[in-house]
Description:
heterodimer; A: alpha/beta; Elongation Factor Tu (Ef-tu), domain 3; Rossmann fold; 30% strand; B: alpha/beta; Fumarate Reductase Iron-sulfur Protein, Chain B, domain 2; FAD/NAD(P)-binding domain; 5-stranded parallel sheet; 16 strands
Amino acid sequence: MFRILQAEFLAPGIKRLVLGAPRIARKHQPGQFVIVRVHERGERIPLTIADSDRERGVITIVVQSVGKTTHLLNSLEPGDSLLDVLGPLGKPSDIRAVGTVVVIGGGVGTAMAYPTAAALKRVGNRIISIIGARTKEMVILEDEMCAVSDTLLAMTNDGSYGDKGIVTDKLRDLLESDTRIDMVLAVGPVVMMKAVAEVTRPRHIRTIVSLNPIMIDGTGMCGGCRVLIDGKSQFACIDGPEFDGHRVNFDILLQRNATYQKEECRLMAEFRRPQTACSGPVADARAPGLVPQSGGS
Amino acid sequence: MAPPTRGSANLLPLKERMKIPRQAMPEQPAELRITNFDEVNLGYSEELARQEALRCLGCAKPACSVRCPVGVKVPEFVELIVAGDFRGAAAKMREDNVLPAVTGRVCPHEDHCEGACLLSKKVKPLGIGYLERFIADYEQRMGVLSPVKAPPSGKKMAIVGSGPSGLTVAGDLRQKGHAVRVFEALHELGGVLVYGIPEFRLPKRIIHQQLDYMRAMGVEFETDVAVGRTVTVDELMEEEGYDAIFIGTGAGSPLFMNIPGEHLNGVYSANEFLTRLNLMKAYLFPYYDQPVLDLRGKDVAVIGGGNTALDAIRSALRLGARKAYVIYRRSEAEMPARAEEVEHARQEGIAFWMLTNPIEFLSDGKGWLDGVRCVRMELAEPDASGRRRPVPLPGSEFELPLSVAVLAVGTSANLLIQRTTRGLETDKRGYIQADPLTQRTSRKGIFAGGDIVTGSATVISAMSAGRRAAKSIHEYLTTGES
């Protein structure tokens, strides 16, 4: 059992949970994730580790509620426990001094980009962060990101905070203003990561993305998380979750993430109160790593 | 070799014993069992067991025991069944086999004990597997006696993986008085026995009973630990004070075929499909949260000819598949699956496309599997595995409509532990190198066994490796030499 020590909402539907997991806290490196199971009949879902503290033996996860399991996670309070937390899983981020790094966080993806941004800053990179959200109240972790960035730029779809537009607009501005960019890290919805990769591809700027395929065991045993990298199958759980964005087949990822749309709707319909109907595709409303990838809750 | 009382219980002359027909295993009728996930075989009654046991010829040099990977003393336990001493038979079994209720159900007896049985030269072999299962189940029904705890040795042993090899090592070493802790990455214990083998072949309660017995012996278990990530083998030894380590992490990652269309929705690895059903209980969705595709009225195929393939396709049938196919590139004679499973699958109405190989998965244009293009094969000269090599017949391509395909074409080594443990040697495929007699690895105090050493094999061969490992680990723990 993994006890929750702190719990607070960062934005509507986005909750930060700090939980006791001494073994995981001890080994965690930026870019890694955990597999979580909430209750005895629950599914296993991957969630990125947003922070850790070895001394206190705690890790932080940030959860956006999109399906049943994430709704359950969002309902938890200090003193509650998670049944299973396995990790830290996946390859750690490649942390090197390369010069100037643009870190792009879309929605709840910001929480996942944060530990990698901090580590990249620590080794001496200049960090330009672009954080994007639908609207002002959905902007998260601005102070934390600000603390590890040389420049922080916020974008909202409706212009209620920062500049109006999407993160790739800002990335294009930077490139057109001849800002030297040595690397881009993009973490967010699949369509956002795909768009970022397309912007940087013609300029040959190394672009790292963190993928969020359906996943069950998280240790390489099931192959459910296979993604197409340069036309070859790789497992996001052990070969990733970070990959070179210019080699990823994002369309296959989008298609595979929609596999259980019908089942996800059914699960939510039975879980939610009657007035909330299931409305359309949810697959790409998710941000990588931070929301369930398996059977999507 | 023969105990003094041998032959005393069975008064039948050898000729008479051979006249008794092999007693059939009672089973759920095929038309009923394809609607549920309950066990197919129902088990012998006491009468059936004693009748079957009477068939044993009581060979002075029992080939069955010799061919058993863990050396179960077959004629001795069968003799005790004839005498009606079922508890004694169970105790005799436990001397060599710590998981009799499991092996009684999933061991390929025709390749081991029953394949060696002298009766099989004239009539059908003794139902050793059925008898093994009978006494294990009898013991469970009557209540298993508490295990005798050996005095503590003061040594601490870590076991990585709670599958058949790890559990065997745990049981054997605990009996010798060593403190034993088993680390498991998944949330449930049992390894392939819980995520791989379906309920209708090996009910989970059987595993739970075995685990309860081991807990009663004093074995400790810790789930949610992926050794190599959560903690490394070196840390277990240097920081957590374990005197020796056994690595039994299993077969590893599923192989894919690298043919077009493998990324379509509806194409599963057998590991994923079976894990969803067995570990996550997706057949009870939405009562359980993890989903599996709705197979009702769909055409489903499994690619492969092993037990995993049959487990997957028979599960698909139970989930309501309209048509269920096995597509296998060799012929039935080469199928690695247990004979009984093939027979059960046929009874259940599964169609076999033998000498057939998929070359492309076809899309419906929206990202979903819609069919498979196959080519017929013929068998050429034997290959490295000793089986005749299948080669495609030119111009024999054909298409089969399909909604879901499950790939059961083998596994490759998972390198997590190999890459995070100093000086642990592997073969060129990445499997851990271990001495075949002692299961010692290149690192002192580290032992390995089961599929992570041999590649995909059977439950009984993993248990056999566990048995050998336990013997040499005990020697290492008591003498410091390995």
